[in-house]
């Protein structure tokens, strides 16, 4: 005879049996494989995107020329030209006063200089008394040629 | 999970860590090389800019050589001072003026009381006598000496009916390097 105690034992057994092991805890090779594959694909896609991003960034760096400011060389050409014209005018006037058109200053050639000297030899005067200046060294003075036009 | 599954999981984790470590180290190296590349690129650009500037200066020096020589010639050289005075003596004789040099000194470059820098100058004092016309002509000659100069003092005295005397002081800027 089946007693109530036996029935409750059978019910308990059935209930325990139905509970069993939860599905997520059970290994499903295909599911785990596809999960792993999915994660790997995600990593590969993210890695590729990141690499592409770095590549593009450096590609832009390579192709973009750097703008380095070039130092400016100041040269006041207009001022120089104006100064030269002023001095040329003075030079012309100087020559005009002396009644000659010979170009003055050191730029004259050796032959021109000798011509100038020969022209003025008739107007030789004694060398003026020069106040000696201690700052002028004897070796610094060159009397070999005329420095001004006559 | 079975023991075998645990082993595979541990191996997979280890592989993942190794790959992730390699990836991070590669990323770090790429960034470091990128920084080096940027520095090198900047250095090259600066060098190129300097080279271009140097070439430009060289071209400028070559193209302005004549102008610079002309400008240089408008500044008296210290070694030519005596020749200059001698020339002025001869010029005075040509214009009929008796010239005497009464002052000769050089002033080194410096800064004046107003704080303005000035170049080294040669100070020459001339006194000269002659007719009024010849004295005026000689003054005009002094004004037009083709050197950078300033007449700082000028005075006239009528010695007698025909003879005039003038005193002048000139400051000629000396040639400098």
Question: What report would you give on this structure?
Answer:
The complex is a heterodimer of chains A (150) and B (177). Chain A is mostly helical and 150 residues long. In chain A, 55% of the residues lie in helices and 0% in strands. Chain A starts with a helix and ends in a 30-residue tail after the last helix. With 177 residues, chain B is an alpha+beta fold. Chain B has a four-stranded antiparallel beta sheet. In chain B, strands 2-3 form a two-stranded antiparallel sheet. In chain B, strand 2 and strand 3 form a beta hairpin. The termini of chain B are far apart. Chains A and B meet through helix 2 and helix 3 of A and helix 1, helix 2, helix 3, strand 1 and helix 4 of B.
Quick check: average pLDDT of chain B? 90
Order of helices and strands of chain B: HHHEEEEHEE
Spatial gap, N to C terminus of chain A: 159 Å
Largest β-sheet summary of chain A:
none
Low-confidence spans of chain B: none
Kindly estimate the percentage of residues of chain A that lie in beta strands according to DSSP.
under 5%
Shape of chain B: rod-shaped
Rg over CA atoms of chain A:
54 Å
Strand content of chain B: 25-35%
Give helix and strand order of chain A, one letter per element, not per position: HHHH
The helix fraction of chain A, in percent, is: 55-70%
Runs of chain A in which pLDDT lies below 50 for 5 or more consecutive residues are 101-144
Overall pLDDT confidence of chain A: 69
């Amino acid at each position: 005879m089946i007693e109530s105690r036996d029935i409750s034992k059978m019910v308990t057994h059935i209930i325990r049996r139905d509970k069993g092991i939860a599905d997520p805890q059970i290994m499903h090779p295909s599911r785990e494989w596809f999960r792993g594959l999915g994660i790997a694909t995600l990593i590969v896609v993210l890695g590729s995107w990141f690499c592409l991003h770095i590549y593009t960034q450096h590609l832009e760096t390579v192709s973009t020329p750097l703008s380095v400011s070039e130092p400016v060389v100041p040269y006041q050409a207009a001022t120089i030209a104006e100064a030269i014209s002023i001095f040329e005018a003075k030079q012309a006037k100087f020559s005009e006063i002396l009644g000659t058109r010979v170009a003055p200053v050191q730029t004259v050639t050796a032959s021109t200089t000798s011509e100038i000297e020969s022209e003025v030899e008739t107007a030789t005067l004694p060398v003026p008394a020069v106040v000696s200046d201690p700052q002028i060294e004897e070796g610094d003075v060159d009397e070999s040629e005329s420095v001004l036009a006559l | 999970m079975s023991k075998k599954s645990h082993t595979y999981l541990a191996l997979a984790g280890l592989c993942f860590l190794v790959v992730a470590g390699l990836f991070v180290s590669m990323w770090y190296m790429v960034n470091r090389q990128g920084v080096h590349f940027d520095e090198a690129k900047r250095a090259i650009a600066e060098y190129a800019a300097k080279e271009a500037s140097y070439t430009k200066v060289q071209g400028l020096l070559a193209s302005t050589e004549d102008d610079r020589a002309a400008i240089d010639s408008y500044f008296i050289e210290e070694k030519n001072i005596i020749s200059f005075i001698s020339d002025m003596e001869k010029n005075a004789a040509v214009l009929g003026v008796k010239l005497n040099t009464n002052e000769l000194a050089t002033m080194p470059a410096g800064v004046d009381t107003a704080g303005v820098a000035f170049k080294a100058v040669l100070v020459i004092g001339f006194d000269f006598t002659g007719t009024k016309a010849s004295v005026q002509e000689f003054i005009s000659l002094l004004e037009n000496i083709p050197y950078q100069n300033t007449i700082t003092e000028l005075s006239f005295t009528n010695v007698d009916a025909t003879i005039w005397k003038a005193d002048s002081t000139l400051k000629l800027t000396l040639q400098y390097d």
